Each structure stands twice: as structure tokens, then as C-alpha cells.
């Protein structure tokens, strides 16, 4: 019950036990086409280029940034936590000129501040996190795509922590690339990164197209832009592989594709609205239960992610002892924290297969028992009672 990875849905694990298929087997390419179709409503898009990047969520991030950005390009990063800093680091390794617009951890960046930064820096790309699990804050994205288009910039959004649990509105936001991962709200294992790419971004990427030497034919030409600085993460070649051309790029991770497909099927069977309500109910119950136990929550309630909640470790309580006893005595994992929050907060996830009433209640009950055993006084049953009431009101 930490900020991810979480328990995979049993159906996903079963799907991943199926036998392998060759990467050009008609059944395999049919599954690839099905995955593209399944993930469009999950991303909130009609984008043709909605597919998978093989690798963890960070593989999707790197593919997006290295394919959009050339050395020397100016990129504006909206930074409000650890993963905004990650975007900054990746872009620095690419050789981009990185500018930032920032908010303290526990807050989000106001749209007016982003607008001013875009006008000041004139970036070619604006990059942001949607939900940053390090701070448990979700950055509002309404209006950001319009600002980017006015400035001629492309918009990249990392939705690793929110895809499958909070509504994504790729087309309405005007986002050009959005990436995710399976291991949080989608209820799968890490190892595959869903991605959606707008036609506008695809056109930009294809201008940098470079056909691999061993695959060249007379009818396959390169673009006139600077070659993308990675072979594996070259979205131009990956799009060619997922297109009707089926131009070989890599050996598709068959088992991960089965898992990603089943994650999407489960979500769509549940229904998008029901899925988002379930995550909101779980987050509301977790927050109410923690507060009823006398714990203070970290961050601005207005922008809290529905699926991850951070609570301050009470004074005099050894946070790592609590985490160890939760794991040893109850087989429940809760999260530690990073950077300026290390040793100061616990992070509780309620996402995907774990965003269920009984799992929230079991976690709160176990935490109460452990805190009492650690000598921290609190009212017996208050957390569970508050969580039950909050779930029913959600």
C-alpha cells in the first residue's frame, strides 16, 4: 500500500503466463493493434500513435524527451517535486538548455507563473509531471496546451502515477505526448510504458527520422532534422514498427504486451467514471482515516492526488520501525519519502487493484496497532471508523 509498484491484478498475471508469439505473427500484430485502440480512451485521446514503449515508465519518459528534444533546444520544466527534477536531469543529459518554473514541495505551479515563464524563455518544449508521488500533488493542466500552442511549443506530460486512476484528457489539455506506466493505477507490473503521441508531435519526430542502416531500402528515406540521439528510444522508428509498415525495430516484449492489454481491458470493463470514483473514494477514506488517528497530512488538499496520501511521522515515532513492523506483522508495505521529505512523512498508496475499501481499512487498522505498540497514543478504531464514513460519502 505504498506509492507504487502495487499488487498486480490476478487477471493481468494470468494473461502474462500465455505462451510467446513471434513479433510478426498475425496474432501478435493483431494484439498490437488492439492495444492501440484500448489505450486511446484511457489517455482521453483520438491519437493514432497510441502504443507501448518497452521498458519501465522511465523508458517512456526518455523516449518522449530524446525524440522531442535536440541538443541546444530550450525546454521549460514545470517542477514541483522529485520527478520534475528527473525531467531536468534527463534533459540535461540530452544537452538541452533547461529552464524551470517551480513550486515548493507540497504545492503546484500556478498557470500564470507557467505563462510568464513560457513568454520569458520561449521554449520549444514544455515538460511537466501530472501527479508527482514524491509530493502527492497533481498539477492542474487545463489551459497549458493552449499556452504552448500560442508560443509554438510542444507539451509533454508524464502521467505515470495517474494513468488509470485519475482522468487524463490528452486532447482537451492539448498535450502532444503523454506517457505512463503499468505499475500503479493500471494494476500491472513495471516493464511497459503506454504512450500517446499527437500528429503535431509525430510530424516533429518524423523530421528527425533516420532509418536504421540494416533496414534501409530505396523507398525509406530519412528526415532533414537532427538524428534522434538514441536508437532504442527513437519514437520515429518505434512508430514505424507499430504502423502498417511493421518495420523491425526491436523484439517486442510479448509478455509485457499481454499484461498491458489486460490492464486496459480490465479498466474499460469497469468503466472510466467508475474507476475514477473508486480511486477518489479510496483516497478520501485514507486521508480521513489518517487524520482521525491524529496524523497531519502533507501538502495542499486542493491538489492532492486521489491515489497517494502523505502523512507526517509523529514526533517521537521511529518511522522506519513502523514501516518494518507493518511489513513483518501485517505484510503491508507503506512508502518512505525522498529529498526534503525523507524521514519526515510516510506515503500511502490506494491505487489500481489496491484501491478497495477493505484494503484501506486493513492498512489503517494495522497502522493503528503498530503505532500503539510503538508507544504512540491514539483513539482505538477512530481511523477505521472515519475511513468507512468517508468512503460512503465519496
Description:
The protein has helices at 10-15, 26-43, 57-68, 82-94, 111-121, 144-151, 170-173, 199-206, 235-242, 254-270, 272-292, 319-330, 357-373, 382-393; strands at 49-54, 74-79, 97-102, 125-129, 131-132, 137-138, 154-158, 177-179, 192-197, 308-312, 345-349. It is α/β, with parallel strands linked by helices and 394 residues long. A seven-stranded mixed sheet has the order 1-9-8-7-4-2-3, sandwiched between helices. A two-stranded antiparallel sheet has the order 5-6.
What sequence of helices (H) and strands (E) makes up the elements? HHEHEHEHEEEHEHEEHHHHEHEHH
- How helix-rich are the residues, as a percent range? 40-55%
Distance between the termini: 20 Å
Shape: globular
Total count of strands:
11
What number is the mean pLDDT?
Answer: 95
Our estimate of the beta-strand percent is: 5-15%
Query: What is the rounded Rg?
Result: 22 Å
Low-confidence stretches: none
Instruction: Give the number of helices.
Output: 14
Which structural class matches the secondary elements? alpha/beta
Strand order of the largest sheet: 1-9-8-7-4-2-3
For the largest beta-sheet, the strand count, sense and barrel status come to: 7 strands, mixed
Write the layout of secondary structure elements.
Elements: H1 10-15, H2 26-43, E1 49-54, H3 57-68, E2 74-79, H4 82-94, E3 97-102, H5 111-121, E4 125-129, E5 131-132, E6 137-138, H6 144-151, E7 154-158, H7 170-173, E8 177-179, E9 192-197, H8 199-206, H9 235-242, H10 254-270, H11 272-292, E10 308-312, H12 319-330, E11 345-349, H13 357-373, H14 382-393
Parallel strand pairs: 2-3, 2-4, 4-7, 7-8
Antiparallel strand pairs: 1-9, 5-6, 8-9, 10-11
Helix pairs in contact: 2-10, 3-4, 5-6, 10-11, 11-13, 11-14, 12-13, 13-14
Amino acid at each position: 500500500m505504498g506509492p507504487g509498484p502495487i499488487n498486480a491484478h490476478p487477471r493481468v498475471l494470468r494473461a502474462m503466463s500465455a505462451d510467446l508469439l513471434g513479433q510478426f505473427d498475425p496474432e501478435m500484430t493483431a494484439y498490437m493493434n488492439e492495444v492501440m485502440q484500448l489505450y486511446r480512451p484511457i489517455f482521453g485521446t483520438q491519437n493514432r500513435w497510441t502504443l507501448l514503449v518497452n521498458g519501465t515508465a522511465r523508458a517512456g519518459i526518455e523516449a518522449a524527451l530524446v525524440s522531442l528534444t535536440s541538443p541546444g533546444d530550450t525546454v521549460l520544466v514545470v517542477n514541483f517535486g522529485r520527478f520534475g527534477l528527473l525531467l531536468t536531469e534527463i534533459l540535461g543529459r540530452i544537452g538541452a538548455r533547461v529552464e524551470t518554473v517551480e513550486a515548493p514541495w507540497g504545492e503546484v505551479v500556478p498557470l500564470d507563473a507557467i505563462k510568464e515563464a513560457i513568454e520569458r524563455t520561449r521554449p520549444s518544449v514544455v515538460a511537466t509531471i501530472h501527479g508527482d508521488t514524491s509530493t502527492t500533488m497533481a498539477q492542474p493542466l487545463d489551459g497549458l496546451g493552449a499556452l504552448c500552442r500560442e508560443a509554438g511549443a510542444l507539451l509533454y506530460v508524464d502521467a505515470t502515477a495517474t494513468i488509470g486512476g485519475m482522468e487524463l484528457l490528452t486532447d482537451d489539455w492539448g498535450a502532444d505526448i503523454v506517457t505512463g506506466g503499468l505499475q500503479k493505477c493500471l494494476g500491472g507490473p513495471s516493464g511497459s510504458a503506454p504512450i500517446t503521441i499527437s500528429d503535431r508531435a509525430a510530424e516533429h519526430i518524423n523530421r528527425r527520422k533516420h532509418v536504421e542502416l540494416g533496414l534501409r531500402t530505396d523507398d525509406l528515406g530519412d528526415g532533414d532534422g537532427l538524428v534522434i540521439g538514441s536508437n532504442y528510444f527513437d519514437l520515429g522508428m518505434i512508430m514505424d514498427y507499430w504502423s502498417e509498415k511493421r518495420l523491425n525495430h526491436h523484439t517486442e516484449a510479448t509478455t509485457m504486451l499481454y499484461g498491458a492489454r489486460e490492464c486496459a481491458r480490465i479498466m474499460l470493463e469497469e468503466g472510466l467514471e467508475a474507476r475514477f470514483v473508486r480511486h477518489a473514494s479510496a483516497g478520501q477514506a485514507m486521508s480521513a482515516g489518517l487524520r482521525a488517528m491524529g496524523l497531519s497530512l502533507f501538502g495542499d488538499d486542493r491538489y492532492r492526488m486521489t491515489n497517494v496520501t502523505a502523512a507526517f511521522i509523529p514526533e517521537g515515532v521511529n518511522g522506519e520501525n513502523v514501516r518494518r513492523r507493518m511489513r513483518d506483522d501485517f505484510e503491508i508495505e507503506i512508502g518512505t519519502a525522498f529529498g526534503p521529505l525523507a524521514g519526515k512523512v510516510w506515503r500511502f498508496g490506494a491505487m489500481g487493484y489496491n484501491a478497495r475499501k477493505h484494503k484501506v481499512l486493513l492498512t489503517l487498522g494495522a497502522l493503528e496497532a503498530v503505532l500503539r505498540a510503538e508507544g504512540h497514543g491514539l483513539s482505538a478504531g477512530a481511523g477505521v471508523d472515519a475511513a468507512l464514513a468517508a468512503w460512503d460519502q465519496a
